[in-house]
Write a structure and sequence with these properties.
The strands form five sheets. Strands 1, 2, 3, 7, 8, 9 and 10 form a seven-stranded mixed beta sheet that branches. This protein has a four-stranded antiparallel beta sheet with strand order 13-15-16-14. It folds into five domains: 145 residues, no CATH class; 55 residues, no CATH class; 119 residues, no CATH class; 200 residues; 127 residues, Isoleucyl-tRNA Synthetase, Domain 1 (Orthogonal Bundle), CATH 1.10.730. 50% of the residues lie in helices and 13% in strands. Helix 15 crosses helix 16. The protein is built from 27 helices and 18 strands. It has 694 residues and is of the alpha+beta class.
Length: 694
């Protein structure tokens, strides 16, 4: 046993698989935060979890807090002493509350004047005592999507608590959560080794549970799951269809994995493969099996939490359950073939999109018009495909298969469209317009699907902002953040040069009189929302926030152009000349402030340095203009860097705020013209902070 080690375990009934790792992270992070706040040093926090437990082990945990001195300000000196220098009630009361003699109070000088100060020595408390206060609060504060309470108690948790193991430095920590008291024992596998086990260190805890048929380390258990399912698939001459998400789920459904391979009738292979795979994974958490060529086999792998004595009998049990699921899917599939998607598309008025925004039929009509206009401008050769796909893109919502498996919308649309003779490009767009499904997901490969996806997301965003819906904190019931990010990634991924403001206006107009917000206000709010998501997405990719702000503060018309300018600024910002130019531009901005007049009168250019600067602006502006127009911002910035020397000489030799008004106005106009040139790329002054950091 390691000295000064904490071992803490929360024993429960089986926690839902999706709750386990977020709760474990919260327990570990919460414990680290609480220990740090209490100045309790520690070496390492390790964690473990199964469906029946959440556990942490803290090594090298200090046995007590360090002693510390607390400095507390009291009343002002003038209120603390009377005219004779005797302490007043204010001073006496302050000393009493701090537990010190009035003679021990000090006078200190602050920004507000002279005040009394008490220095209070606080002895550190014992770690065990602090843990007995801290750990119950951590348990009751763990977040779960849904909690429950049981029996007559008021304690809420994901599932009922059954035991608490709490040991520090080999000694039991004593506290209670309602009727449940702490102990020094954990429990092994519910069926294979249910006897209680004693543990006093994290290493001993893991080893003891391993002997008791529990792999408490999630990574160790995950490796065991992968090994087991691969072994089981190999018994049927196949391999597991890769599914990392299902592996993670199954890892948190068992305490020790025991895999078994089963089979189903080959006729079920006639189902769309996505249906077959989804039916197995979503309802039963079974893994699909493929041959060496990646073709689905009529096999599956199930993972049990107990060892099966007779593999054949165990497989038959799983097969019976799966057969019923697949029969249902087969029935739904056959029923769906009776009516084509084109017929179903006309019945979408029975599905509400949003109470104030109408039905899915209304949405489909808007998407079709918006997508058609987008295609006409950005991909005219795809317009007929886009318009046909827009007509059908929501029709599979009315199929029995999507009703049973909502995650298959789009997938079913593509499959059924192919079976019903639609063009392959149309069928692919029915699926791909939903991509990306989440952050980091793949983008559509086809331009038609990307354009249809842009129209779909623009319609949703415009409608929701048009009726005043907002995202607040974690509340985003219509997934507006996800919709905005999806739009951003589609536009960037397919380099669609879509000017946002006019197309948002178009999307708003297509709603007619359904919207309650003023169109201009709704558009501006939506633009700010998309800008925020765009900026966050870029900075999450380690692009300096200063470069992002430098560009977005001067222009946010088109995303691809914004990204090009940001990347150009980042690329050139490492040059020494740019650092000096950024500082000069900051000075230019400070001088011109709100001046908008950039009309320079050559006759009023008196000093050589200002004539040189005016000539440089004319020459460099003309040279950079075609590059700026063509979006070649890196080469344009190379040329604009030539302004550094003339700007420096101008500030060294010319008084901008001349006494004569006409000279002052002319020089401000010259600087305003320079600022306007720089701002064709971005506000260089915002890069000044980045240069100073470097």
């Amino acid at each position: 046993m390691s000295a000064h080690e904490l071992l803490f375990e929360i024993g429960t009934e089986e926690i839902p698989a999706g709750y386990i790792m977020p709760a474990l992270d919260a327990l570990r992070e919460g414990l680290a935060r609480e220990l740090t706040q209490r100045e309790l040093a520690f070496a390492e926090i390790r964690s473990a979890a199964t469906p029946r437990r959440l556990a942490v082990g803290v090594s090298g945990l200090a046995p007590r807090q360090p002693d510390r001195v607390e400095e507390a300000l009291g009343p002002p000196k003038k209120a603390a002493f009377d005219q004779s220098g005797r302490p007043t009630k204010a001073a006496l009361g302050f000393a009493a509350t701090k537990g010190v003699a009035v003679e021990e109070l000090e006078v200190v000088v602050t920004a507000k004047g002279e005040y009394l100060q008490a220095r209070v020595e606080l002895p550190g408390r014992q770690t065990a005592e602090l843990l007995e206060e801290m750990l119950p609060q951590l348990v009751t504060g763990l977040p779960f999507p849904k909690s429950m309470h049981w029996g007559s108690g008021q304690l809420h948790f994901a599932r009922p608590l059954r035991w608490l193991l709490a040991v520090y430095d080999g000694k039991l920590l004593n506290f209670r959560l309602e009727e449940l008291a702490t102990g020094s024992q954990t429990r092994g596998h519910r069926f294979l080794a249910p006897a209680p086990l004693t543990a006093a260190s994290f290493t001993e805890y893991l080893a003891g549970l391993r002997r008791a048929e529990v792999l408490a380390d999630p990574e160790e258990r995950r490796r065991a799951v992968v090994k087991e399912i691969e072994r089981a698939a190999a018994t049927a001459g196949g391999a597991i269809l890769p599914d990392e998400e299902l592996v993670s789920t199954v890892t948190n459904l068992v305490e020790t994995p025991f895999a078994i391979c089963g089979s189903f009738a080959e006729r079920f292979l006639e189902l769309p493969h996505e249906v077959l795979i989804t039916s197995m994974r979503e309802h039963q958490k079974y893994f699909a099996v493929v041959d060496r060529a990646g073709k689905l086999l009529p096999r599956f792998v199930a993972v049990n939490n107990t060892r099966v004595k007779d593999a054949r009998v165990g497989a038959e049990g799983h097969q019976r359950v799966l057969r019923a699921r697949l029969e249902d899917a087969f029935f739904f599939f056959n029923e769906d073939q009776q009516r084509p998607l084109s017929a179903r598309a006309g019945e979408l008025d029975g599905i509400i999109f949003q109470a104030k925004l109408g039905t899915m039929a209304d949405k489909s009509a808007r998407i079709g018009e918006l997508a058609g206009r987008l295609a006409a401008q950005f991909a005219p050769e795809q317009e007929s495909v886009v318009r046909r796909a827009a007509r059908l893109c929501k029709a599979d919502l009315l199929t029995s298969m999507v009703g049973e498996f909502p995650s298959l919308q789009g997938v079913i649309g593509r499959d059924y469209a192919c079976r019903q003779g639609e063009k392959i490009e149309v069928a692919e767009a029915l699926y791909s317009h939903y991509l990306p499904l989440r952050a980091g997901d793949r983008l559509p490969k086809d331009l038609a699907g990307a354009i249809l996806g842009c129209a779909d997301r623009l319609d949703t965003l415009a409608g929701c902002f048009g009726i005043g819906l907002k995202t607040t904190g974690a509340a985003d019931p219509f997934g507006l953040r996800r919709q905005a990010l999806g739009l951003i990634h589609l536009l960037l991924g397919h380099k669609i040069p879509l000017p946002l403001a006019p197309w948002i206006d178009t999307a708003l107009e297509l709603y007619g009189d359904r919207l309650s917000e003023q169109p201009a206000a709704a558009r501006n709010r939506l633009l700010d929302f998309i800008k925020g998501r765009f900026a966050n997405d870029l900075t999450a990719r380690d692009i300096p926030v200063e470069a992002v702000e430098a560009v977005l503060s001067v222009d946010f018309r088109e995303l691809n152009d914004c990204r090009e300018r940001i990347e150009a600024l980042v690329a050139i910002s490492s040059r020494p000349a740019f650092a000096l130019l950024a500082a000069a531009f900051k000075r230019v901005n400070n001088i011109i402030k709100d001046n908008r007049d950039d009309r320079v009168d050559p006759a009023l250019l008196q000093e050589p340095a200002e004539r040189e600067l005016a000539a440089a602006l004319s020459r460099i502006g003309a040279e950079a203009e075609p590059l700026l127009q063509g979006g070649d911002y890196r080469r344009a910035l190379d040329i604009i860097l030539g302004m550094k020397e003339p700007v420096d000489r101008f500030f060294d030799q010319v008084m901008v705020m001349a006494e004569k008004p006409e000279l002052r106005r002319n020089r401000l106009a010259l600087l305003t013209g320079i600022a306007a040139l720089f701002k064709r790329v971005g506000d260089f002054s915002k890069m000044y902070a980045l240069q100073n950091q470097d």
